[in-house]
């Protein structure tokens, strides 16, 4: 839930059903500060702003690897029969192994973006 008045975001996940929140006032959104990341499934509670860490490509690669390994569904659009049979055999509980090279490429994408200061 977004609390626009108090600049907070409340959330919970399946892995951690406690209601937690992010206090947006705790962040510096200027280009001078490092990008921050947070593991939504961590077991912290309350205000999680202090649990954010500086972004690294390694942390992003770890997150992407876990997400691809745990995704319990896939959209079946344009998939070939071999993949459909694989998914049926595995009860649609996991995606087929994505090559490490592709996960590495995905994990490097944020490094291609830049922070731009708005000119007034």
Task: Give a brief description.
The chain has 120 residues and is an alpha+beta fold.
Shape: extended
Percentage of β-strand residues: 5-15%
Provide the helix percentage: 25-40%
| Main sheet properties | 4 strands, mixed
The largest beta-sheet arranges its strands as 1-2-3-5
Encode the helix/strand succession as letters.
EEEEEEHHH
**What's the total count of β strands?**
6
Structural class: alpha+beta
Please count the helical segments. Answer: 3
Separation of termini? 32 Å
Overall mean pLDDT: 84
Unreliably modeled segments = none
Write the layout of secondary structure elements.
Layout: E1 2-3, E2 8-11, E3 20-23, E4 36-37, E5 46-47, E6 53-54, H1 57-70, H2 81-89, H3 100-108
Parallel strand pairs: 3-5
Antiparallel strand pairs: 1-2, 2-3, 4-6
Helix pairs in contact: 1-3
Describe the structure.
The chain is an alpha+beta fold and 120 residues long. It has helices spanning 57-70, 81-89, 100-108, and strands at residues 2-3, 8-11, 20-23, 36-37, 46-47, 53-54. The strands form two sheets. It has a four-stranded mixed beta sheet, with no helix packed on it. Strands 4-6 form a two-stranded antiparallel ribbon. Strand 1 and strand 2 (8-11) form a beta hairpin. Helix 1 crosses helix 3 (100-108). The longest helix is centred in the middle third of the chain and has 14 residues, at 57-70. The chain is extended, with a radius of gyration of 18 Å. 1% of the residues are buried.
């Amino acid at each position: 839930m977004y609390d626009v008045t108090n600049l907070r975001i409340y959330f919970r996940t399946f892995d951690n059903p406690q209601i937690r929140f992010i206090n947006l006032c705790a962040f510096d959104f200027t280009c001078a500060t490092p990008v921050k990341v947070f593991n939504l499934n961590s077991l912290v509670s309350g205000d999680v702003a202090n649990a954010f860490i500086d972004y690294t490509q390694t942390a992003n690669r770890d997150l992407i690897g876990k997400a691809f390994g745990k995704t319990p569904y896939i959209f079946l659009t344009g998939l070939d029969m071999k993949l459909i049979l694989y998914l049926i055999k595995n009860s649609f509980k996991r995606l087929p192994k994505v090559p490490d090279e592709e996960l590495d490429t995905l994990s490097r994408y944020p490094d291609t973006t830049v922070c731009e200061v708005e000119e007034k």
